[in-house]
Backbone:
């Protein structure tokens, strides 16, 4: 995709800090592998605690990785004062999440002042083979301080 | 919605057994609250371990609850020999997942021999108030034994 | 759903005017049947010109009706100076679009200053029977004058 | 993406014939520009008859092009006796559909015996510039003769 120019020169530190402040990422064992303006790659080791009835990783957990990859990718292009919110996403499950390690790659398709559109892919690494197991398209929203100072304690796409 | 006639007279025990075989549900603390043909209600207590940077439950975890609610609802209408697979879903995040308890209600919109379509809603209970925080529409697929005996170790929408 | 309070006392005339300014609605023969704050019902007679290879109405045309129903429903709750834009939608096709007449019912699930979330259903009337044939969930965006005065000739979720 | 091996040696003629049997494509002026196994490119000239209130092509019409591109791409990989059905799609609208000509490019992400997953992009050509205006992810279903001989006059994902 296109190369993007970050609004925030400190985008890398800001994105890492935002990611690290998410307890869910620690609990799921998801880490940042690669980070560039508008692009991110996360990885997660298999954990039996997050599987479904056939021993594959649960679709919701794969979605957590995909959504977070989209969020971090979008966040790298937002101004330094923005917080970020996921508006919606669609996950398509192409193959069972069977593997020892999972990789989530997201990229910004179109950034915007308010809304940013991302795409992400999840891959399973199993016995030396990498398989595309899921895709996501998602819409992310920048929350700027003006909005957070409004009458609502926490704005919800307001 | 319409009342559905289950194909499997033992649908209740089968759905509970399928749900209980999912380690991810135990880990997330999600339980079945109500079960009827084509309808299910799950619930989950807040856990700090699954929150994002603002202290709200992560969208992927909310999606895990919604997806599982859809899966169980669809499964109640499938024949006894079927296994179930999620094909795709879209999650719309209407409000932050802030609360002490979360409820996931799903219902079948249209059952089918191969594909079943479901809708689900997630609610947050916070300080005595219940808020609709997310919706899902999803497609589920019945995997019948014939298919699982095919050349693939695990069929993926084959 | 909830009863909504329109921001624009002239919401009815504004929504009808917006709808009438769409040549696509005239060409497809789609008309407004019912209008209330946050709710709308459109209808379309079958036209062979818009069918696919099996004689059913094309999914894109059904989507045009569903999307417009969502747009009008969302628009009824927007301030008088707003223009409206569709951000994204998902259409699920439950049954073939076979019938003499089609009805598109949309309602706002959650209105917001910037984003409004809607759901819609398409029904086919065929030989005296009404069938749910498709559902949509969509995100709509209010474009306020401030934005339209920006550097872009036409803002795109900017 | 990967190169696909068609099941049907006459895939090209079959796909063109299926496309040509759709009156909606004629009415909208959509034509096939390029066709390969698992890939297709369609094009449509601007028509004022299909615009919305700002003079841009209606999102439902753009969706018709995207959906049909996905359908033809999926169909090229299906066996000769299969008919095809769209199960669901999500359209994301990145920019207004302003232009003299529109191009719809689809490719199969994962083919399957029953379900095929596709992605598509819509581009607007305006004053010599090409802009990505929309994306789609969709699920298509092969309908094999066995199914069409079932008790239902027309199977709907049965």
Residues:
């Amino acid at each position: 995709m296109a190369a993007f120019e970050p609004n925030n020169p400190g985008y890398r530190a800001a994105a890492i800090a935002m990611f690290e402040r998410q307890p869910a990422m620690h609990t799921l064992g998801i880490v940042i592998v690669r980070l560039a303006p508008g692009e991110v790659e996360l990885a997660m080791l298999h954990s039996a605690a997050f599987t479904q009835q056939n021993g594959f990783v649960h679709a919701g957990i794969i979605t957590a990785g995909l959504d977070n990859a989209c969020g971090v990718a979008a966040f790298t292009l937002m101004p330094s004062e923005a917080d970020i919110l996921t508006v919606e996403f669609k996950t398509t499950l192409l193959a069972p999440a069977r593997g020892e390690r999972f990789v989530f790659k997201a990229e910004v398709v179109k950034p915007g002042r308010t809304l940013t559109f991302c795409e992400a892919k999840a891959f399973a690494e199993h016995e030396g083979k990498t398989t595309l197991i899921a895709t996501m398209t998602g819409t992310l929203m920048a929350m700027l301080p003006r909005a957070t100072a409004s009458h609502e304690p926490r704005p919800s796409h307001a």
About this structure: The helical segments of chain A are 11-20, 23-28, 59-75, 145-148.
